């Protein structure tokens, strides 16, 4: 599809607002995760998902023969003239180019999801571009290592997950049974079983749980497509099974659910990594593949091995049983002593995001 055809398609689907863009100290780059900035009283927002465009700004750009989306972003920022430009889209290449145009503003990125190699290839392809941020709040030291290779940043702060940090830590009440975190997405159903590995993993975990005479609970990912997700996750199980799905009603329900369980199993879910910060025993079965290659190995980019005591990048029954037996039989105290400190490089915990709020407030006040 040509650039012109893409532009026409975007304009046919998008909405227009007719607001006069106001100056402001804080500009949120991307409307994703606006709930995470609710504590800040005043801010302007810039939609970068081609869903909403400001009519007057577009008109002004067209009159000055500026037609690209980057032109639109640059004009928008110049109108707001912010002290701080903040984004939770930490894998957006365009964001890291903007400092070159607005040297006086502070550009701050906050990691919003656990990033795998295939999601960050764009940085490698454009490694010759001048990419910059004033602050980058990462999940942990592991993520910082990757970003340091491809962009300049004055301040890396290992914050942990902003959402996870807002939920209180609690001791596990469900110590006997196992929780599996689903990553179901309707749009991925057209892909093959090498990518959609969850139902096969659940089938094997169920056999393990039946032998141990314990229950397997599934943390549902979707609120809108509950039945479709449930049917997919249970599709490889026999008619009689002991697996229970837990419906997600609120956006943060699964964080409270993780709090309850001592043993958490996942493929490559961000919530699985967030469970590390909640001091849970984790089992990672990161066997998702595309074109024959594992696309989200556990511990990218620092861990190079394909398996260890609590994780495996293979989806065989033998491997899944191995890691389940290792972790499930290990007492919580031994887990904390032997593994917790080492795993903190993947996910920190900063209660109520005090580090984050302190930086923002200092810069905008």
Structural summary, described in words:
- The chain is of the alpha/beta class.
- The chain has 2 domains: 3-166 and 351-364, Rossmann fold (3-Layer(aba) Sandwich), CATH 3.40.50; 174-343, Rossmann fold (3-Layer(aba) Sandwich).
- It is built from 14 helices and 16 strands.
- It has helices at residues 3-13, 55-63, 69-80, 93-97, 117-125, 141-150, 162-165, 198-212, 226-233, 253-260, 270-277, 317-328, 332-343, 354-364, and strands at 15-17, 26-29, 44-46, 52-54, 84-87, 106-110, 132-138, 152-158, 174-181, 216-219, 243-246, 261-266, 281-285, 289-290, 293-294, 311-312.
- Strands 3-2-5-6-7-8 form a 6-stranded parallel β-sheet, sandwiched between helices. It has a 6-stranded parallel β-sheet with strand order 11-10-9-12-13-16, sandwiched between helices.
- Strand 10, helix 9 and strand 11 (243-246) form a beta-alpha-beta unit.
- The N and C termini lie far apart (46 Å).
- The mean pLDDT is 93.
Secondary-structure topology with pairs:
Elements: H1 3-13, E1 15-17, E2 26-29, E3 44-46, E4 52-54, H2 55-63, H3 69-80, E5 84-87, H4 93-97, E6 106-110, H5 117-125, E7 132-138, H6 141-150, E8 152-158, H7 162-165, E9 174-181, H8 198-212, E10 216-219, H9 226-233, E11 243-246, H10 253-260, E12 261-266, H11 270-277, E13 281-285, E14 289-290, E15 293-294, E16 311-312, H12 317-328, H13 332-343, H14 354-364
Parallel strand pairs: 1-4, 2-3, 2-5, 5-6, 6-7, 7-8, 9-10, 9-12, 10-11, 12-13, 13-16
Antiparallel strand pairs: 14-15
Helix pairs in contact: 8-12
